[in-house]
Predict the structure.
Amino acid sequence: MTFLLTEDQEMLRDTAMAFARDELPVTRLRKLRDSGANGVDPDTRQKLAELGFFGVIIPDEPGGEHFGLVGLGQILEAQGRTLAATPVLQTALIAASALQLGGSAEQQAEWLPKIAGGDATFALALDETAHFNPLGVATEAERNGQGYTLNGMKRFVADAHHADMLIVVARTYGEAGDRHGLTLFLVPADAKGVSVQALNSVDSHGAAHITLEDVIVPDSAIIGAVDKGADVLEPVLDRAAMGQAAEMLGSAQAAFDMTLEYLNSRKQFGQLIGSFQALQHRAAKMFTELELTRSCVAAALAAVDEGKDNVAELASLAKAKASELVHLVSNECVQMHGGIGMTDDADPGLYMKRARVQEAMFGSASWHRDRYARLAGY
Amino acid sequence: MAYDESVDLEQFRAETREWLEENCPPSMRTPMKDDEIVWGGKREKFKNPEAKVWLERMGEKGWTAPEWPAKYGGGGLSREQNRVLQEELRRIKARPALFSFGLWMFGPALLEFGNEEQKLRFIPDIVKGKTRWCQGYSEPGAGSDLADLQTRCEDKGDHYLINGQKVWTSYADKADWIFCLVRTDTSTKHEGISFILFDMESEGVEARPILLISGESPFCETFFTDVKVPKDQLVGEVNGGWQIAKRLLQFERSSISAGGFGGTGGSGILGPEEYAKMHIGTDSEGRLIDGDLRGRITDHKMYAKAFNLTVQRQAEQAKAGQQVGHTASILKYGAAKMNQDRHELLVEALGTEGLGWEGEGFDPAAKKVTRQWLRSKGNSIEGGTSEINLNVISKRVLGLKDHK
């Protein structure tokens, strides 16, 4: 039963949809933007914790385990609909996955309850250039007496401008491009030598450049094995790509619904513009793409929960299809709204801006197409 | 209850497995060959004699139409039992015993709209593959606007008299009977259409094959001149044929999208990435040298995967009783695009090897690709053009309004 939600997941979906609609409408993002909050929203973080949304994939929490990644995907899709800025993807999905896949018993005992309770938020500090390239990490982790010393620079790290903790991917062996030699470190964002440069990004969610200058971390900060960080990082990035795809699916669906409503209300030449076949066919094609992408996202999330062996393939499929979808739909949303779509007052532009950030995170469509082909052996 | 059912199912599986072991001939467990496909009917030649045995045995059990009622010759199986049957057939890689418009399109419609006498008369011979049916829908002046059809059907008291012409009638030259849309009222459009059945050997029926760009002739022009049809062969109400016609089109579109167009298997044709590797080559990391073609092949393969996942999703949702809406049109549109893209990429990857027509000097599978590429151009035309499907999606699914 790959594609059907359980009753509990249905309830979670309904709750997440209602929460996004009532508490996190697009007007909230506007308010955060206009007040200069740069996507930082402590009130929402508090409410998400109360709803239990941070603990959805963490076992041993009340109602935790059985929601799975499929459950978390429902929350992300709901938030994508309203472009909500929340720490859910970075903290509840990425950090919780990294700790569960590679964390020691002590790390899990310390951090998982804090994640579930909304008491600690995380950011994955990975990319060092303007394009996603996980094996290209050059940030140095040098052995010292007590542990390691980190030196390097991380670019455009989502949530890093407000996260409590960083998961830093650094190189303990070899050189940029090698799979072997990566190691994951847990680093407090306020550790000595960490400087965080907040960025104002086009989507108003914000991000940060991070500089690591002689940051000293103990051995106990390592997630997984030294030099073998890729074994943890790769499955985490697959899940992150799926979570991002679920969010994009929500954004695309909302932009599509908005467009359809406009086609059914705006009149020109004495007709609803939605009665023009040139627009009808484009709407129908978008709908077809939406349905196809929905299947890919659902299959990918379920494959993780069911322990299937084609997770990597499905993650790339979901991220590539969702990237293409949200790109297409956000552009058409602006175009079909005409001049209104160019105004800051109307929402289409916000969807287009957020879409470009979503597309770039965890690998663009072309990055995932390349990987899909590689996995298929050509 | 649930427990008992599963015990029964396991017993059914054991019995089915045993029956298939004894009754499925060895060559019927090998990949289908294009020239051994069985369409049934009076003129079926059975190139492979074991295919005849296989059809007779499957037809006798009603397992060519597993879920149709047993009283009409069907298998009378529950959906769960049929699932088990299909799993067991797949397990031994059994070929389909019968390809048939009767099974895919006409039968389901007749079961829904026919009277008892018609069902008892026609359904069993569909199940057994004894009658091969063809579809009299399109006309020279009624393609996408099918309801504009003009073939006349006049009430002559004790019989109907039919005059007119159909076109794109698939395999009309090989079929025994036709299910046909005819005009019984000229004063109105949709409400003047009836659904009628008759023997292709009736006096006044002539089928002429049409040569296509692929060099093949699967379709005919079919002419009717004063064809007399008994009155009990009209299905449903007089002038009530359009409802049946539309329902049947849904069955047609679903069967096209479920089969993904022409995928009979065993054709020896490889994927576009394999031909590209062969004829263009790879770099030291095994990637196709032509990066642009590689990207487009991947795009296509992702689309195909997404399409198949969507078919699976909708099957699961339908099974769970969830609304799946007007999905047939989405899938028909997607299936046409997918198959056409695939064949464009195959021909491109084959290079000049994909440009052979006949004779020596070309790989046989590549020559088949060339013909199939040409044939695939019809995928976005037959059974409702892609443009008509987009109209259906935008109006019926998305609720967009008609142009005034």
Chain B touches chain A through 45 residues (CB under 8 Å). The first strand of chain B starts at residue 133 and ends at 136.
